[in-house]
Amino acid sequence: MDSECSSLLDELQTIWNDVGETDAEKDVMLLELEQECLEIYRRKVVQANGHRTQLRQSIVDSEGEIVTICSALGETPVHLRQNKEALKEELKFITTQLEGMRERRNRRLGQFLKVVEQIHCISKEISPENGPSEILLDEHDLSLRKLEDLQKQLDLLQKEKVEEEVRRLEGVKASKMKDLVLKKKLELDELCRRTHLVDQTNLSTESAVEAY
Description:
Residues 140-179 form a coiled coil. One of its GO terms (biological process) is microtubule cytoskeleton organization. The protein has one domain (2-170). Helices cover 83% and strands 0% of the residues. It has four helices and no strands. The N and C termini lie far apart (155 Å).
């Protein structure tokens, strides 16, 4: 690059000589050229520094999100800083880790939503007149301990639902048995009535025969 710049300056000097520029005018134009070059370098430095700042901020933001996700999952954040790596490589590494943590959080959130939905459904089945109790899902607490608490609540509701169903079936069974007993009693009464009528008819016939 130095040889190319030197060649361009030589060509510029030749042009100025042909034009008849004085040494003072040449010095002014060279100073302007130097200032323009410095300004270009300065802009490039500012741009490069801005890009470096963005990379560092992206790394910090990604690390912060990983810490937040770990906290929500109830886990201890791991040390992710790779000081010996270039910023691009470090960001690439942390971005991969972040994507993995996001997937884990989404899976855990799906487990929470499934349990909460079951709790709502069973609560509505048990007490339709009252409606299901509202369960506020805190996405900042997706720990296994919290999930286990909700699962225990679901287990209790499922047990209550089964017990309620057993009581209902026992009630239905008792009602059907009562209806069956009443039906059989009516059949027995009808049978007895018919038998009594037959006996009365036979008795009347026998009396008539004896009279002859």
